[in-house]
Amino acid sequence: MPGRAWVVAAVLAAGCRGPRFYDPPAETLPPPAAVGGTEVVVTDHRPAWEKKPFTGKAALYYPGKVRPSPWEQLAAEAGAVAAELPDRPHRVTVAVTSLRLVRTDAAAVDGELRTSTFQLMPGVAWTWNLEKAEDLYPEAVLDHPDGASCAVEATVTVEAAGRPPQVFEVKTIASGPGFTGTAYTGDVFDQPVRTAVIQFGRKFRSAAGLPGG
Fold first, then answer.
1. Over the stretch 166-176, which tens digit does the pLDDT of each residue have?
2. CA atoms of 204 and 75, how far apart (whole Å)
3. Do the bridges between strand 91-104 and strand 38-44 make them parallel or antiparallel, or are there none, so unpaired?
4. Dihedral angle sign, alpha carbons of residues 48, 170, 100, 9
5. Tens digit of pLDDT for each residue in 25-42?
6. How far apart are CA 138 and CA 48, in angstroms?
7. Distance separating alpha carbons of residues 111 and 106, to the nearest angstrom
8. Are strands 115-121 and 91-104 parallel, antiparallel or unpaired?
9. Which of 70, 75, 172, 187 is deepest in the core (most CB within 10 A)?
10. What angle do CA 81, 103, 186 make, to 5 degrees?
11. Three-state SS string across the chain, please?
């Protein structure tokens, strides 16, 4: 599982190699809201490692860097889909199991890896890596494309009177422009977060049998 073996390597990493953790502000989830007679609830079920953001050649940022927050955008999108359902549900719950805002540079990550060189003959040497990128960073972060991107994974439960709850698994990832050249990173995530939320809505619609999915 991501977040186990790599932690040891990150702790042992010397200098500025690997992740540099920081304490994020507390996340604020939107309160349950009534949307056209449907209560829309967003809950946070992310694994513990996702709640520990870090900077580095691969970086994991806390969702609150974007305004409006991804939580608010997901709640609004879920409410919009709920309003289109033929049998108006009384509750839609979006249990977010993963929400990753990642900025990464695969070539820069490779440059952090320790290497060893063997001299085969004068003028000819063989160099190889002594470690993998997964030894420094979580594999789930390294799976993101270069630049800025947002991944959303959620279990959506639709509850309506007179029938069993419907449960849908929704996963999406979206990328955007990469780097601004400044220390501020919130703006580079605006596009990937918005695109990921739109894709979430489309996949929710498709799973629920609505057009436009």
1. 999 999 999 97
2. 12
3. parallel
4. positive
5. 999 999 999 988 999 999
6. 12
7. 9
8. unpaired
9. 70
10. 65
11. CCCCHHHHHHHHCCCCCCCEECCCCCCCCCCCEEECCEEEEEEECCCHHHHCCEECCEEEECHHHCCCCHHHHHHHHHHHHHHHCCCCCCEEEEEEEEEEEEEECHHHHHHHCCEEEEEEECCEEEEEECCCHHHCCCHHHHCCCCEEEEEEEEEEEEECCCCCCEEEEEEEEEECCCCCCCCCCHHHHHHHHHHHHHHHHHHHHHHCCCCCC
d(CA 211, CA 213): 6
pTM to 2 decimal places? 0.83
| pLDDT tens column, 66-113 | 999 999 999 999 999 999 998 889 999 999 999 999 999 999 999 998
Find the range with the poorest average confidence among 25-29, 59-63, 209-213.
209-213
Locate 201 and state its tokens: 């809505």
